[in-house]
Write a structure and sequence with these properties.
By secondary structure, the chain is α/β, with parallel strands linked by helices. Helix content is about 35%, strand content about 15%. The chain has a single domain, classed as Rossmann fold (3-Layer(aba) Sandwich).
Amino acid sequence: MTAAVKQPALVIPQLIVGLGNPEPKYDQTRHNIGFAAVDALSRAWQIPLAENRKFQGEFGEGVAPIGGKIRLLKPLTYMNRSGQAMQAVTSWYKLPPESVLVIYDDMDLPIGKTRLRLSGSAGGHNGMKSAIAHLGSQDFPRLRIGIGKPKGASNVDDSTTVSHVLGRFSTAESQLMSLVIQFVIECVELSLKQGVEKAMNRCNSRTIDIPEA
């Protein structure tokens, strides 16, 4: 009799973290798209977010659309210390790193693209460097939202990068990003229902375009 093939354990998020910077001047910037995604999930699932000093962020807990308990977090520690807030929540609730889904911006992906992965390096993203350091692992799912590179920049220097990520989307880009955020909600809900690995097939294959007028 042949041994049964062991199915990999489903990775179902229990904590969803959006990366960004606090302070009104960073609202709506490209670097804060992770915050925008968690705000959208908070509205869609009717899970209010409130500042929680213990968790160093805005935090909310409630029931996901598929019925399980879910937690939402926007660290208020500034991007390069995001991991402190994540560690505060995971320690308190005794959550393993693989139950944390982190949503953040990615300059290497064009606008309209999302990329869901089960693990990986920080890829130069300061928020992710902090997350990996504080969670003690890089084996946790992440959903990257494309913000594109600065226009006409072939060799982008640091100052161009900073002004791009801390800049705001154009009107056309904002229209597109609101569709992307809706798609992100879909991807997250699929991750909760079927596990991150199944959701990857859908979320990584689609490019969002502005619908023709």
